[in-house]
Amino acid sequence: MDFQTTLKVKQQIIDEALDKYLPKEPSPQNNIFEAMRYSVFAGGKRLRPILMLAACEFAGGETERVLPFACAIEMIHTYSLIHDDLPAMDNDDYRRGKLTNHKVFGEGIAILAGDGLLNYAYELMLQSILQHPSQSQNATAAMYEIARASGVYGMIGGQVVDLDSEKKQIDSITLDFIHNYKTGALFIAAIRSGAILAGTEPETLKHLTSYAENIGLGFQITDDILDIIGDEKKLGKKVGSDQENQKATYPAFHGLNHSFERVNDLFQKGLAAIEHYGEKAQFFMDMAHYLVKREY
Questions:
Q1: Residue 197: phi, psi to the nearest 5?
Q2: Secretion signal: which residues (predicted)?
Q3: What is the domain partition of the chain in residue ranges?
Q4: 272: Cβ–Cβ under 8 A, 6 or more apart, which residues?
């Protein structure tokens, strides 16, 4: 299969698993189930869970074993988007071309939907660990990767510094911190946890980590660029919001030309980390093109 076909197949696998795992039974708290499912199924590309599946397969693991963890990381990512869109954060009305969660369900339910997705992600992973006790060591290590990348030493830490940096002059070290933690951390965790679940060797994990670090940062800088010169219809969200909110971005700090150069440099470094695996690494190489060479 070509890359686009493989991507669609993996997206379908993730979507079917998410539909299976996410609660939907009639109950007094049905409103929260609807709000959680609304944002999860609002058109996400499933990049992080797909990278986790690919890393697991790359290291010789089984798709079925990694699915609960892949769905969990997508739930965590979605919770972060729900909260990021709130008036107290980025105050966005649209996400992926649809009204944001708080515009549909109200701020209170949106906050709880994000909380619900975060908590349910850990329920899902712990349930899987309890069901497969013989594989609990690798599974617990994978869960730790996801937990740390999602928390104050990862995504949340990056979001805090991002908020603190609004309307301020910052240095390049702070800018890199924001991007590496707010966005890059979950990309790295997705790939590392997938490989860990498969019981990969340390050297392979090292190479995959290097790939993830470079591609994750390249992905975020590309997002910064698209917020300036991207097509709103293709992006499914308003462009120019970073500048409007005086966010710390690469183009604002370094200019567009340097930002393009930085993306290309990160792209090449990401490929260099895995190209010696040859055809085995083809999906990751194609994914790098897909992530950091998106249409401007």
A1: -60, -30
A2: none
A3: 3-292
A4: none
